[in-house]
Design brief:
It is built from 19 helices and 18 strands. It is an alpha+beta fold. Strands 1, 2, 3, 4 and 7 form a 5-stranded mixed sheet that branches.
């Protein structure tokens, strides 16, 4: 750069000739030079600010464009994921029919170790045992000190308190990874309906949640589908009714000294399962391991309502009566011989002497085996098989529970006349309480086929296919009402003021695993519906090996065990279901029906 001199010689000479100070000339030249430098510096600064502004504008425009593009992207993109992980851990909530949460997700931490980074592996293993007493100390110590492992899972999920305690250990080789876990806020309530989950594919940033039982397994793909944007799975279960049913059943099971118990409450018109309880049960937050030995029914995972195959005893007698009524062989007032009956060197007789003859409705009310046998033989094997097939006893119940869909009733391979005799009063055929609830719903709703469901459905989505006639249905309802309302009825302890309970008891000897029957072990069942004048709900209660002392005598029959438990359940759940009590005595209302 060419600079002008601060003391130009010509100017200096001229100033001296004029008598002026030459220093003023230098100061003036220096000022000009500074002005030029300031102008260049200012231009340079302005250019830099302009460039920086352009960079900010371009950057913010790019970010805004990207945000706009994401906002307008397709809804089937995954909305929830952990950065750096390809594992989809989104899982939709499960709610009851009123929107109450049954299953949801919770953010948590997984604890893992990298032994090469650990300062004192043996001390770390010892300290972790104090925080997590369920850890295997020997295994953890070996994993930390063997020198072969670079990565070790310690706990798949830890609480915030446990996480803080691990942090306090100050061990750099103990690390955490964020993930989601499945949470069941109601604990054991509805355990067999929900089933439970486990972790599938996992890394330190995320874990896949997979259903292993109940609706969690049946609807696994739907619950994990990101295209549904987390829309909850709405079940038919009523959480309040479920809680009341479980509490009463649990207390009844203890009082009756039963080994196990189950209860099913079903809408007779839609097939919606309002509550389903199987005891003993489990906490799906800490689902136990599947037993690999012993009787499966001894495991709390065993769903007695949907998996338990039992001979359900005299609850089947109403189906024998249905066959006779449908074929026109009898009406409720038809007189049947009830004297002891001999067949193939075996004599069949009633629990009590009910007299030489009884009407069809009295046979059901008093639970006469002999009268039922004679009706079954008169109708024939073919008619009996058709009725039971129409009521769903030849196939698994098509409900959204994997355990139920794999449980098919056990029927005779060779359906002989002897089979017809025993099946007429509920022996020789094994079915689940869920099968029985479905069949009784058909009887109660006017004879329409019912498809049980654990999902909430439209109340207008009613069954259309007829299984039995309206007339037969009304006659059967009348008979079952008398079982409860009459003094001689086997279920008179099921009277619940205002709710017109109708039903049938069943007490069947338990089958030995080696064959034959136990002498003093029974399955006691009460199948019912209410109110009888306009049935809304079916309730089936079953107790495994109940026994109670009454007036110094040991009682095992359903009338003394399952019936009072069912009555208490109805007393508790009917108001929950908004059923108003019926104030009038309905005894006469059934007289005209039964005589038709």
């Amino acid at each position: 750069m060419r600079r002008s001199p601060l003391r130009p010689l010509a100017h200096i000479i001229s100033a001296r000739q004029e008598g002026k100070n030459p220093d003023f000339i230098e100061a003036k030249e220096r000022s000009k030079r500074n002005q030029v430098l300031q102008l260049k510096t200012r231009v340079r600064a302005e250019n830099r600010l302009l460039a920086l502004g352009l960079i900010f504008i371009i950057g913010f425009s790019a970010v805004g464009g990207k945000m706009a593009m994401l906002a307008s992207s397709s809804s089937d993109e995954v909305k929830q994921y952990n950065s750096g992980s390809k594992i989809i851990n989104q899982r939709a909530n499960i709610v009851d029919r009123n929107g109450n949460i049954l299953a949801t997700n919770m953010s948590t931490q997984a604890l893992y170790a990298q032994p090469p980074l650990m300062i004192n592996p043996q001390k770390a293993a010892k300290d972790l045992l104090e925080i997590f007493p369920d850890l295997n100390h020997e295994r953890v110590t070996k994993n930390f000190t063997s020198g072969k492992r670079k990565f070790v899972w310690v706990k798949k999920s830890v609480s915030p308190e446990q996480q803080q305690k691990v942090h306090d250990l100050g061990e750099p080789g103990l690390l955490f990874g964020s993930r989601e876990m499945r949470l069941y806020p109601n604990g054991k309530l509805a355990a067999h309906v929900l089933g439970g989950t486990r972790f599938g594919e996992e890394d330190v940033r995320a874990a896949e949640i997979i259903g292993v039982g109940g609706v969690e397994k049946y609807f696994d793909n739907m619950l994990r589908d990101p295209a549904l944007e987390g829309e909850p799975l709405e079940l038919s279960i009523d959480l309040t009714a479920q809680a009341a049913t479980r509490q009463v059943l649990k207390n009844g099971m203890r009082f009756m000294n039963a080994k196990g118990a189950s209860a099913i409450l079903m809408d007779v018109n839609t097939g919606e399962i309002i509550s389903l309880v199987s005891l003993p049960d489990f906490d799906p937050n800490n689902r136990p391991r599947v037993a690999i030995a012993g009787d499966p029914s001894d495991s709390p995972l065993f769903n007695r309502a949907a998996q338990g195959l039992y001979e359900l005893g005299s609850t089947f007698k109403i189906f024998t009566a249905a066959t006779s009524l449908e074929k026109g062989l009898a009406n409720p007032q038809t007189i049947i011989d009830t004297t002891p009956f001999k067949w193939n060197r075996k004599t069949y007789k009633d629990y009590k002497n009910y007299g030489p003859t009884n009407s069809v409705e009295d046979i059901i009310m008093k639970s006469s085996n002999v009268g039922t046998i004679r009706m079954a033989l008169a109708a024939g094997t073919t008619a009996q098989k058709k009725t039971l097939n129409d009521l769903g006893f030849f196939e698994a119940v098509p409900v959204e529970l994997g355990e139920a869909s794999r449980t098919k009733p056990q029927i005779p391979k060779n359906w002989s006349d002897t089979s017809t005799i025993t099946i007429s009063f509920g022996h020789g055929i094994s079915a689940t309480p869920l099968h029985l609830a479905t069949a009784y719903s058909i009887v109660a709703n006017g004879g329409f086929r019912v498809k049980p469901t654990i999902k909430k459905v439209n109340s207008n989505n009613l069954a259309k296919e007829k299984v039995i006639s309206q007339k037969t249905s009304q006659q059967l309802i009348s008979m079952l009402r008398r079982v409860v309302s009459e003094v001689d009825g086997t279920a008179k302890m099921a009277k619940v003021d205002g709710y017109q309970v109708a039903g049938k008891t069943g007490t069947a000897e338990k089958i030995k695993p080696t064959g034959g029957y136990y002498d003093k072990k029974v399955i006691a069942t009460f199948a019912s519906f209410f109110p009888a004048s306009n049935p809304k709900y079916t309730l089936v209660v079953s107790l495994d090996e109940p026994e109670i002392e009454v007036l110094g005598e040991s009682r095992r029959t359903a009338g003394f065990t399952a019936v009072p438990v069912a009555a208490e359940i109805i007393t508790r759940v009917a108001p929950i279901l908004n059923l108003r009590p019926i104030a009038t005595d309905d005894a006469m209302a059934y007289t005209s029906i039964s005589s038709q």
